[in-house]
């Protein structure tokens, strides 16, 4: 072996020894790291930062949030049920009394018994500073069939709802709230008994209110009333409709069309009544409810559709070929009745429009 080969062998041995030492150091470092991780696994901080810990925290927060939501909802439901119960007691106390004084006595009894708790409102009534509503003031009785299914009309400025108007009716020193609808820009149709008293004056709040402003587009006073002879000569239910002639046409109103439909079409159609009930927003907003309609023996229409004080005179609407049409004129909440649109009704209204329409 010459000198060069010896040097090569010596260099290889040194390189092997260096590699061996390097591997020993790497192994030592790995052992230290492994021991450190093992100790850290017992640390609470490391646990909560781990995926399992985060999942535990998330589940606990979700459970707590659900429990809190259920509790708040339960409290709100109890409050609503309590308010509904008190409202029913107040309504029965008023309806069962013959006059305002008797109603105040009933209310004071409920208040003293702790069954109603709205001190300010009850005190206003029992002290005599508030005028209690009556059927003479606000029209026909309210009719709710089980659960109240009426809903607020969210777009009252759209057709067909913008053709439906609120009526403030005055006659012989009494006032009444009603509903009507335009059949011409200056002619409003409503129930006959809304406007059949001598000296009747009607304020027609037209528009109705826009969703943005919450106000009616305009008010129009009128004393010009038209009634069919079937009502003036015998108060025939089939003729329980009339017209209010306004002094000028109302702009931006699309009048509603009267439509004659068969019993078969009627049985397949769901109808809607939209009007201004006093028990919702004091009659300032348009509310509606829907249901199925059946012909009545005397020629009218019968249904189970929720209505209230102030809805008399509202149109009974159905969709015919994707276009809303009036098939009846609501006139009785107590019996849930409407005048059915017949050829005679269409001819009478057409004659009014021809004579008085603008």
Can you put this structure into words, describing what you see?
With 358 residues, this protein is α+β, with helices and mostly antiparallel strands. It contains nine helices and 14 strands. It has helices spanning 3-40, 44-49, 51-95, 100-112, 119-126, 135-138, 229-232, 263-267, 343-356, and strands at 151-152, 164-171, 174-184, 187-190, 201-206, 218-222, 224-226, 242-245, 270-275, 287-295, 301-303, 315-320, 323-332, 337-340. Strand 12 (315-320) and strand 13 form a beta hairpin. Helix 3 (51-95) packs antiparallel against helix 4 (100-112). The longest helix has 45 residues, at 51-95. The chain starts with a helix and ends with a helix.
């Amino acid at each position: 072996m010459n000198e060069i080969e010896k040097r090569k062998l010596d260099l290889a041995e040194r390189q092997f020894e260096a590699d061996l030492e390097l591997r020993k150091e790497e192994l030592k470092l790995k052992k230290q790291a492994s021991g450190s991780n093992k100790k850290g696994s017992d640390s609470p901080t490391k646990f909560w930062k781990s995926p399992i810990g985060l999942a535990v925290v998330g589940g606990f927060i979700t459970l707590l949030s659900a429990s809190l939501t259920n509790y708040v909802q339960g409290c709100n439901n109890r409050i609503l049920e309590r308010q509904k119960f008190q409202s029913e007691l107040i309504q029965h106390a008023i309806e069962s009394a013959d006059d305002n004084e008797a109603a105040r006595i009933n209310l004071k009894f409920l208040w003293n018994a702790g069954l109603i708790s709205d001190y300010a409102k009850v005190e206003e009534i029992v002290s005599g500073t508030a005028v209690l509503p009556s059927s003479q003031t606000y029209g026909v009785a309210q009719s709710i069939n089980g659960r109240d299914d009426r809903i607020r009309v969210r777009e009252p400025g759209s057709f067909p709802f913008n053709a439906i108007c609120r009526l403030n009716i005055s006659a012989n020193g009494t006032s009444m709230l009603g509903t009507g609808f335009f059949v011409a820009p200056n002619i409003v149709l409503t129930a006959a008994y809304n406007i059949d008293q001598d000296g009747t004056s009607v304020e027609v709040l037209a528009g109705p209110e826009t969703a943005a402003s919450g106000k009616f587009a305009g008010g129009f006073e009128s004393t010009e009333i038209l009634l069919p002879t079937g009502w003036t000569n015998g108060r025939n239910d089939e003729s329980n409709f009339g017209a209010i002639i306004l002094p000028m046409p109302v702009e931006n109103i699309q009048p509603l069309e009267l439509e004659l439909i068969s019993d078969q079409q009627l049985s397949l159609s769901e109808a809607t009544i939209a009007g201004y009930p006093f028990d919702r927003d004091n009659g300032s907003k348009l509310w509606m409810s829907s249901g199925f309609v059946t012909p009545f023996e005397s020629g009218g229409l019968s249904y189970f559709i929720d209505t209230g004080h102030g809805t008399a005179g509202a149109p009974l609407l159905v969709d015919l070929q994707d276009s809303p049409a009036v098939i009846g004129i609501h006139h009785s909440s107590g019996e849930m009745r409407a005048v059915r649109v017949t050829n005679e009704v269409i001819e009478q209204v057409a004659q009014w429009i021809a004579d008085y329409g603008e």
